[in-house]
Amino acid sequence: MPTIPAENYEISIHDGFWQLVPTEDSPALSRRPAFQVVRGGGVMEYTPAFGQAHKLPGTVLSLEYVRAVVVGYEEKSRCWLLGFQITRSASEAARWLELVHWPSGDNRLYAASAQQAGRELAEHIGCPLKIFGAKKLTAPLTDPNQSGVTGPLVPHKRENIDPQQVKLRAQSIDLPIQYPGMWLGRARNNVTLRLSKEATSSKQSGVTPSFNQCVIDPGQGSIRLIPPTGLLGTFLSGQQGRVIRVADVRNVELRHTVLRRFVPQESAEDMITEVTYIIHTWEVYLTLPDESLLLLQTSHRTSSELSRRRSSAGDKFAVDTETSIEYLRKHQADQQAYDAAANWAENAAVVIASALNVRLVKTEVEEGVAS
Prior knowledge:
The chain is α+β, with helices and mostly antiparallel strands and 371 residues long. It has helices at 48-53, 111-125, 163-170, 230-237, 304-307, 321-356, and strands spanning 3-5, 9-14, 17-22, 35-38, 43-46, 60-62, 66-74, 79-86, 95-101, 129-132, 157-161, 177-179, 182-187, 190-195, 213-217, 222-226, 242-245, 251-266, 272-287, 292-303, 359-369. 21% of the residues lie in helices and 39% in strands.
């Protein structure tokens, strides 16, 4: 994660920590965080000097008192500010607590840095993010599932798994395996992948599979790709299938792409509450000498409204059993859907790579689309 410079501080985001590190008259190796939040930790920690300067008690404060993370541009000081709305009870008016600000300048000069720092802090704490004073915000999306095109040329993490390890993993996968619109199994000595019409079409702007059936025949050393129209449609429409030599496949790639869309929604107090839509896509490609050929894809989407939900400040000792159980059910269903999409794509990639006797390459690509 990046280090974000601010006035007198650097914001360090790494390994589940969100930290404010002083930069004034302090060697880099000896600097210690003046303020930090650990993802899921439930408290904010700070030095005595930081607490005294910001009128905070002691050196630790529960995050239950944080109603929202607020980031915005103040016209009077011409600065971007980042801080909290804090309250001791649900009925009490929230007070503003500034954590850090950026140097004075034009509204757009530090807008991206300030908003990125605010988004990350809201994610670490698990609370809403509110924005004020931004001059240019994207209109809310009519379709939050719309995603951008990603490719192998963007920065990514990479893991190579050799053919022997792939075959060992494949032995633990019982075929056939199914996922909505997709089926993968064995027929004689072949491995066959079948995709429904829905699985080969998408409202998204991204790439979708061009074939609805893939037959891997290791004995013949061939991969047959059959178009969505089927065999009869091939003759009638002129659309041709494709045959690829197994020897031409360099590896099988399992690509996991994470796309974040930051969608502003109207809110009170002259602020905009921002919702983050997180779209996960898992794609399985055949890597050929001159192209990466998409075979299948699964996806999962969620929003910060679910991931950031927690008890409201001042009510931490109250228990609403019905609401808590409903939230738990939604969270479990969301996690199960995520796991199903991720596991099926990985199992399919392992089976296909094993049948082809090639490496499995797992790549991680992360994109962010700012508001």
